[in-house]
Amino acid sequence: MNDKGIAVLEQYGIQVNKSSRAKGAFLLDTDNGYYLIKEFRGTVKHLELEERLLNEISDNSSLYVDYPIRNQAGNLISEDLDGTKYILKKWYPAKDCEVRNVQMLYKAVSALAVFHNTSAEFMKMADKENEERNSNAVKAVSEEFEKHNRELRRCRNFIRRKNRKNEFELMVLNSFNLFYDRALALASECSVDSYVEMAKEAADKGSMIHGAFNYHNILLCDDGAFLTNFEHCKSDIQMKDLYDFLRKVMEKHGWNRELGHKLISEYSKVRKISSTELNFLRICLSYPEKYWKILSHYYNSGKAWIPDKDIEKLKTVIRQDSDREKFIQSLSYL
What we know:
Elements: H1 3-9, E1 16-22, E2 25-30, E3 33-39, H2 44-60, E4 64-65, E5 68-69, E6 78-79, E7 85-91, E8 95-96, H3 102-125, H4 141-161, H5 167-189, H6 193-205, E9 208-209, E10 218-221, E11 224-227, E12 234-235, H7 239-252, H8 257-270, H9 275-286, H10 289-299, H11 308-330
Parallel strand pairs: 4-11
Antiparallel strand pairs: 1-2, 2-3, 3-7, 5-7, 6-7, 8-10, 9-12, 10-11
Helix pairs in contact: 2-3, 3-8, 4-5, 4-10, 5-11, 7-9, 10-11
C-alpha cells in the first residue's frame, strides 16, 4: 500500500497485516477483520445517511453491508497530507455473485427484499430533521422516459442527415421505429395517476432503494449475502431496484421466462409485490433502455469510429427483442 494510504490508516488505529488492490480501492486484512479503504468523492450529508441506514441493516437483518467506519477523531472522512479524502468501510470475505449461477441469483434477489423491508423500518424510525425523503423528491419515471425519448430522436435525426452511413447507423434506422414507438407509449402509460401516486407514496414513506442494485454489488458469504456500494441509495420506488437487477440478469440469460418468474417469486417470498408494483415493474422492463443506452453512447462519443462491441450489443438487443416481449407479456399471468 502507498505511503499516503498508510498515513490515512494511522487515523483509525488499526494494524494492517496485508493489503491488496480491489476495484479501485485497497482491501485490508487487519487485526480486527477486513476493511476497504477508498477515495471519497461524495457529500458528507449522503455519507451520514449511508452510515445510519447501513448500521440499521447490519444490526437488524441477516445481511452483511459495507458500512463506513469513523476514525479516532470521530469523523467519517479522513484526509491525507495533500487533502485527498478517504473513507474506510467494513468488508467481509465473500464470493462475487456469478450471473450464470442461478442459485446465487436467487440468494441475491432475496437479499434485496430483506434490504427493502429493513430499510423501510429504518425510515419509520428516522428523525424528521435528518430524513432525506422531503428534500429527495422522487422524479416521475415518465419524465425520465420522455428525456430518453428526446435523446433517441436526436440520435435518429443525426444519422438521417449523414450522407454515408456505416453498419451500425443502418441498423439503427432499420430498427428505430419498433423501439421508439414502444418507448413513446410507455412514457404515456407511466404518467397515469396510479404511478405518479406510487412515486409520491415512496417519498412520503421514505422507502429506500439501493440505487445501483446489480450482480456486481452483491457478494455471497458462507452464511449470507453481502451488499456493497450504497453511494446512490435514496428514497424512491423500491421496484426500481428489482428492475435494475432483473434487466441485466435477463439480458445475460436471453430473457428466459422461467428464470425471470423464479426471481420475482423469490423476492416476493420475502417482500410481497402488489399488483400495482408488478405492473410498474412490467412497464420499466418494457422500456427499451438497453437500446437507448447504446444509441446514447454512440451519439455522445466521437461517432467517427464505432467499436465492434457496440455493434454486437445492438445486434443482441435486436435479436433478443422477441423473447423480451414474450417475457414481459408473461408477467400478466403472475
